[in-house]
Structures are given as structure tokens and as C-alpha cells.
Amino acid sequence: MPKPIKRTPGLPTREQILDFISASPTPAGKREIARAFGLTAQDKILLKALLKDMADEGLIDSAPGRAFHKLGGLPKVTVLRIADVDDSGTAWAVPERWEAETPAPKLRVRERKQGALGVGDRILARTEEAGKGWIAHPMKTLPKGEELVLGVLRQEGATLWLQGVEKKERREFQVSDAGAAQVGDLVLAEKAGRPPRITVRVTQVLGDPFAPRSFSLIAIHKLGIPDVFSAETLEEAVRVAALPLGDKREDLRHLPIVAIDPADARDHDDAVWAAPDDDPSNDGGWKAIVAIADVSFYVRPGSSLDREARRRGNSVYFPDRVVPMLPESLSAEMCSLKEGVDRAALVCHLQVSKGGALKSWRFTRAVVRIAANLAYEDAQAMVDAAMLPSRCGAAGRRCPRPAPRARRSIWTCPNAASCSTRRAASCRSPRASGSMRIS
Question: What is the reported pLDDT for 98?
């Protein structure tokens, strides 16, 4: 067995210190260096000055905990942030703190259980240089970073600063990493470092702070509205959206059921149908159907979708966007009663007397095919047109109905030259259709 190399007593050279830091299996601070080279109390004072000179010369840098590493390298133990997970499931991390002028290295994470880490997770890891790359061995998962800061970038000299836009965070932060953001951009950034030197790293560029969309983004951030779905939830949504509706549902696709919503509705979750009742015991009465999207068919108790929906509670609507309770593959597609496509629905069959009294009802799961998606204004115009006198000077017949989606508050017969019919659409349809809905 070869004898260990005997170090010469006295202050080590720069090269010896660099070699020791690189070869040390544990973080190497001033104490470890002094112990390794057997330095006296006087030598330790000189070592402190030498390490400072080496840092000023760009040879070494210090990590949290006062350990040293080669500048442009990584500490033996450091905090990393998962930046990407590739198609093979391998996680890649970057240092949470990186002050060198060279690009931050990407480390391949060796997980004990693959798939446990996701983008944005923080880990304390032991780093290892392997060939031309780096490997990270997770030691423990750390809590998520602090709440993101929303602000506008400004420049002072060669330094970028983030000016917070919220009352609770009016202070400015020096920007350590602006990414692709430009001066004047509205951005989201996460804090890094320790007091008194706290910097921020831009994580998302939102653009012009005075654009209409920015006001919605500011509100979403300020109120803490969850607006990002996890990969697990998105994958589950895509999977359940492909489920067959089955053959055990009541088939109501032959009925012209219509969904009536505001003209600017972004989804359609309920629909109605009514016709004179052919039951002799309900002479002059009506039979009606109210259908709502069968969300429970896709969102099962305890699933990732269910947990996320409980966390959000409801969808949130803004003038330029909606923050949905469920991923769009469900909220805007399979759970939206769109015209001309088959959809799973929960249905209530109603029997209403001539005087408007509810005589009976029953619930069922059904498959429906919506005949039309109508705006309230269109539906009301159609009702008003159907109630007009059967007289039209131009043709001697009832005035033609307005075309769907005309969205006019006043409807006039197209044969205006010879017909004076003109009816105001009082738009009673929201009240009428709303009173039939179930929730």
C-alpha cells in the first residue's frame, strides 16, 4: 500500500489549494484546508489573506457555509433547482445560485426513485464532476422557493433592477439573471441569496405592463389564483378525455337540445329542451329536459384532477382570459356542451302542468348532441319572432325569424319596405332558461 504524500509544513501554494479543493470528497472551507496542511495559528492568518487574494484573482469562489470551490465549478454540496425532465424521465438541474460569468452548468440528477422530482423542485445535492459533465446526487428535497415577485425591469448603469408592482413588495431587487427579459418588461421572478444580499432571477416574461392582458396577470398573481396545472393533472385530463361514453347512458341525441349562454361565453355547461306533453293526464302541459355536463364521469374522487379542482374551487373569469378549474381538454372540450358533438350529461326530465306547476321529475345519465349554441339575444329574438302576428305585407305570411347569432337587441323584418313589424328583444331568455337549470 503506497504511503500518503507528506505535505511540506507551512503555507500551501495556490496550486496545492486548488488541487485539494478539487480532490476533497467533502466541502472544503478554511478550517479543512488548514487541517489538511497542518497549519499553525500564525499560518491560518496568512491562509485567510491568501484565500481572499485567490478569490479576488478569480481562482476560487465561496459557497454558502464558507466552503470554497474553483470559480466556474460547483460546490461539493449545494442547492439545485430542477430545470427540465427529458423524454426518458431524467431530471436535469441547475445551481440555484450562480455568479460566474460562464453559463450555469446543467447537472444530471441520479434519483433513487425516478419521477419523484419535477420542474421547479429544489434539492440539496452532492455534486460530482464526471468527464465533461456533472452529476447530482440528491440528499433531500427542499421546500419550494419563496412567493414569486411580480415587477417591471429597469436599468441603472449596467445593473438591472426589479421594481415590484404590489403594495406589499415595493422594494427593488437586483436582477441576477434576466433571461430573455428586456428593460420595461413585466416579469415574474424568484428570490435567491440571503440577507442582506437578496437578488432575483426572472422565471417568466409577461411583456408590456400596460397591455390589457397584463392587468389580468397582475390580479392572478396578487390574489394567488392557481393558474398552472401540474404535469400529472394535465396527463390525467388527456387520458380521461379519451374515455368512451359507453352504451348504458340514455340516448337523447335525437332531441334538439340547445345551450343558451351569454354571447361571450367561453364554455357551455348546461342546455335545455321543452315540448308540449303528449301525456293525456297532463293536458296542455309541457315536458322539459335540463342537461348539464357530466363532469363527474371524468373527475373521479381522489384523483389528481379532483384534488386540483378542490384546490381551485371554481373557474375565474377575466375580460381577456379564464383561469379554469379543470384543464382545457376537459373544461373547454369534453365538459363543454358544444354544438354537433356527443357529450356525457346528467339530465333531469321534468313534467310541468299547464299552470306551470312541477308534476314529476327523474334524473338520468345520458349522451346528448347539442343542436345549437345560442346567445341569449338570439334565443329571445327567435321567441319574439315566433310570437309576431302572421302578417307580412311583402309576402302575406309570417315574418321570417332572425338568423342565429345576429345578436341584435332590436329585430326588424327583412321586408321592411312593406312590413312595419319591429319588436324590441327584451331578452327574457336568461331568466327563463336559468329558472330551469339544476346545479
Answer: 67
Exposure of 156 by Cβ count < 10 A (0-12 exposed, 13-18 middle, 19+ buried)? exposed
pLDDT in tens, 151-198: 899 999 989 999 887 655 567 888 988 888 889 998 888 877 655 677
Query: Cell 310570437, residue?
Result: 387
pTM, two decimals, is 0.52
As a whole number of angstroms, the distance between CA 95 and CA 83 comes to 10
Contact 58, 99 (CB under 8 A): no
Helix (H/G/I), strand (E/B), else coil: 196: coil
The full DSSP string for 322-371 is EE-SS-HHIIIIITS--BTSEEEEEEEEEEE-TTS-EEEEEEEEEEEEBS
Which residues does 77 contact at the CB level (< 8 Å), separation at least 6?
26, 27, 65, 67, 124, 125, 126, 127, 139
| Residues in the chain, total | 439
Residues 213-219: contacts with CB under 8 Å, at least 24 apart: 213/320, 213/321, 214/186, 216/318, 216/319, 216/320, 216/321, 217/150, 217/186, 218/150, 218/165, 218/186, 219/318
What percent of the residues of the chain are helix, what percent strand, and what percent coil, each to the nearest 5?
20, 35, 45
Spell out a b/e string for 70-85, using b for 16 or more CB atoms within 10 Å of the CB, else e. Answer: bbebbbbbbbbbbeeb
Is residue 406 scored above 50 in pLDDT?
no
pLDDT at 228 over 80: yes
Which amino acid makes up residue 21?
I
Cell 346545479 -> residue: 439
Q: Mean pLDDT over residues 227-232, rounded?
A: 85
Q: What CA–CA distance (Å, rounded) separates 368 from 258?
A: 10
